[in-house]
Amino acid sequence: MNILGVESSCDETGVALVRAGPKQQIPELRAHALHSQIDMHQAYGGVVPELASRDHIRRVLPLTRQVLADAGAQLSDIDVVAFTQGPGLAGALLVGAGVACSLGAALGKPVVGVHHLEGHLLSPFLSKDPPQFPFVALLVSGGHTQLMRVDDVASYELLGETIDDAAGEAFDKSAKLMGLGYPGGPALARLAEFGDAKAFDLPRPLLHSGNLDFSFAGLKTAVRTQLMKLANVCEQDKANLAASTQEAIVELLVRKSLAALKETGLKRLVVAGGVGANARLREMLNAECAKRQVRVHYPELSLCTDNGAMIALAAAMRLQRGIAKTSTDHTFNVLPR
Ligand code: KG4
Ligand code: ZN
User: Fold this and answer.
1) What reaction does this enzyme carry out catalytically (predicted)?
2) Which residue has the CA at smallest separation from atom 21 of ligand 1?
3) What phi and psi, each to the nearest 5 degrees, are found at residue 185?
4) CATH class held by domain 2-122+304-327
5) Residue nearest to atom 22 of ligand 1 (CA)
6) What is the DSSP letter of 3?
7) What residues flank ion ligand 2 with Cβ within 5 A?
8) Ligand 2 centroid to residue 82 C-alpha, Å
9) What rounded mean pLDDT belongs to the chain?
10) What is the pTM of this model?
């Protein structure tokens, strides 16, 4: 079965073709293509929803053609069309949903709406070192920070989550305060390489809360306070503050992940979502998990941020288990929140 996946929830247009066999086999990625709108939004310091929607419209069909060509496939080879149903920007989601459902109607094939976060969560199954169920998942994106116990596809237990900002937001907002532009996470991480993570003593909210929830809003405030204290912020100050901020966020994510592993007794951790690309997070997690004989799995770096492959994959894994919510009448809705 060939599943075409379309992702358009935010500022990346992603299309992919995945082949799914029986449930015992992990679906195979045949081809994927991605267009990032980062350059377009950079001038505005963040994503402009209307511009995002218009650019998805421009990109989605050329990307679909490219994916089919790269896979050596025809439109008629597609058995199911999957699209990101939410969460995300309403207008942006509607582009992917509209195209997927039109394609499904034209080809006479069913369509499947996919939860964007399930896509992120399952994306490590496309890596060279795929996980096995059950595992603890640390889901860290621009909008979400969650710890979950995952027993199988669609069998998720929320263990803890952020009570305010997401980890990605903490990176992005701190970066913005430091004037690092958009997207802030990668920019802050790059600058942090030149800084001293011990230079600033930043708070670790909820570190000792005794539960698995996160809080990052206070961190952003602390970054603002530090910046105000420094009369003239030199480049080294900025690098030190970037490194200190990254260290605080990463330490919170690592400590709570370890607590979740301890609480569940599981020996496997899956990290997914854009912040999962952070090198310091991977370094600290790898070191701490190695000490505890815990195996850590990540998506391939190219599949850490939004992409169509994870959407096709999530649909494929649900189809393999007979639990995909397929629609054959090609009406659709999106779920932005
Ligand atoms: O998963 P994602 O691509 O989109 C959402 O679904 O939100 O995650 C985007 C988030 C942004 O906040 C971005 O700054 C952050 O992931 N991010 C990073 C890195 N790469 C992306 N944060 C820290 N370090 C990185 N290397
Ligand atoms: Zn995402």
Assistant:
1) L-threonylcarbamoyladenylate + adenosine(37) in tRNA = N(6)-L-threonylcarbamoyladenosine(37) in tRNA + AMP + H(+)
2) 274
3) -55, -60
4) alpha beta
5) 185
6) E
7) 141, 306
8) 16
9) 96
10) 0.94
